[in-house]
Amino acid sequence: MAENPQIxxxxxxxxxxxxxxxxxxxxxxxxxxxxAEAKVNIAAxxxxxxxxxxxxxxxxxxxIIPINEERFxxxxxxxxxxxxxxxxxxxxxxxxxxPPFRLRSNPAANHGSFVRVMGRCMNEPNETVQAAFGRLFGxxxxxxxAAYLRALPELPPEEIMWRAHFGAGTMAHAMCGxxxxxxxxxxxxxxxxxxxxxxxxxxxxxxxxxxxxxxxDEPVKTKEGKKA
Amino acid sequence: MAENPQIxxxxxxxxxxxxxxxxxxxxxxxxxxxxAEAKVNIAAxxxxxxxxxxxxxxxxxxxIIPINEERFxxxxxxxxxxxxxxxxxxxxxxxxxxPPFRLRSNPAANHGSFVRVMGRCMNEPNETVQAAFGRLFGxxxxxxxAAYLRALPELPPEEIMWRAHFGAGTMAHAMCGxxxxxxxxxxxxxxxxxxxxxxxxxxxxxxxxxxxxxxxDEPVKTKEGKKA
DNA sequence: ACTTGATTAAAACAAACGTTTGAATCAGTC
DNA sequence: GACTGATTCAAACGTTTGTTTTAATCAAGT
Lengths: 228, 228
Fold this sequence. Notes:
2 copies of one chain form a homodimer. With 228 residues, chain A is mainly α. Chain A has a domain at 63-209: Orthogonal Bundle (Tetracycline Repressor, domain 2). The first copy, chain A, is 68% helix and 0% strand. Chain A has 10 helices and no strands. The longest helix of chain A is centred in the first third of the chain and has 31 residues, at 52-82. The radius of gyration of chain A is 20 Å and the shape is globular. Chain A starts with a helix and ends in a 19-residue tail after the last helix. At the A-B interface, α4, α5, α7, α8 and α9 of A face α4, α5, α7, α8 and α9 of B. The first copy, chain A, binds a DNA duplex (30 and 30 nucleotides) through α1 and α3.
């Protein structure tokens, strides 16, 4: 398959690690599981990557960098089309979600194992993962927050940050895979149709971010479930 | 503090495990860390709980059972107040979120370490955790799904399941703690004011669940970020 | 005071972990 | 065809993991 022997082993390891990280979580995956899945010698990991931590970073980096480039391209297009005016909200959210989701239909990209890895990373307590994520996402967060501010000029920035945070969680959970979905729907729904999931996800987050402000014309009655 | 020596050690272990699970994740926490934090002998874990798996289950069970009872009570009140009519959406969401959030202001309950544990569990790949969660949550999911169906009668059940799934993810992420929030807000926001977070969270999820259907009067333009 | 059952303590268990080592193998170059 | 650098291999390194064992300690009951 892979013609260049120089990078063959490296790729085998990355693919195996990615698959196992998606299924078991990063912390629960040992190097010995990885090399068994990749069918390479255990020393190859340290030869090519140096350590387990650097392998984790390499797995994240390989996918996230192209994903972020695609995100920026989509955001550029949105901003160019809007000129000086306000930005449309849904395309911004889509620009964030579609690039990772696109991997799901790409067999050459492990069929989207990485999407689940990515979803998990957003709540991963492991320091290596958190540091890697911080480094790989700093720029993305900055640009998308700026876009949100332009898309929702009527909301105070603080409110937008809260909602962006909530929206990131919605995505992360949806990307992790559909085990919870199966519980909620008693097995009736799954994540099979990626495009449909993506569209519903965008619609849900967009509606959440556009929610009326608390204490506004439609106050949220949220003081215990007492009688109306 | 704890007067009954019978349960003192058991409680020390549960509290220590809960704290460490919240900070490091369940999988990354070893029994030796737990017994060091609890200042007990390592054999006490197996004497009182039998195994690490059963300790994990005990940690989850101790908080989730009372939380679920409270949830049911709040849901009962909502249903009683509504009679035959449709249920109000926000109180249902609040009935799900407030009971765990209440722990955050309770020093006797580890100051809400468990809230973060619970948030993580929703995406935890570990089989023990997933099995425990499934068992502890089956009834809750059933009752809340039924409530959602009554609160949003204009939406098809399938659509409601998707949105409930998204909403669960939003909660889970918010409950995990505010590290992502700090990144998003560049350190300007935190989860300090639990009540304010809860209200924003309820408002976000409610708006998401009430989003207009795709292809309805306000179609979501979600086919690439092309010009408007 | 002695016995009994429950709890704690110290020590060891095999297994699995990430990592390192040194020799074997392979590709090209002179 | 020997040499060189890069890659792979089998084997072992010292730690740490969850678990078990055996003895010591404790609180009551008689």
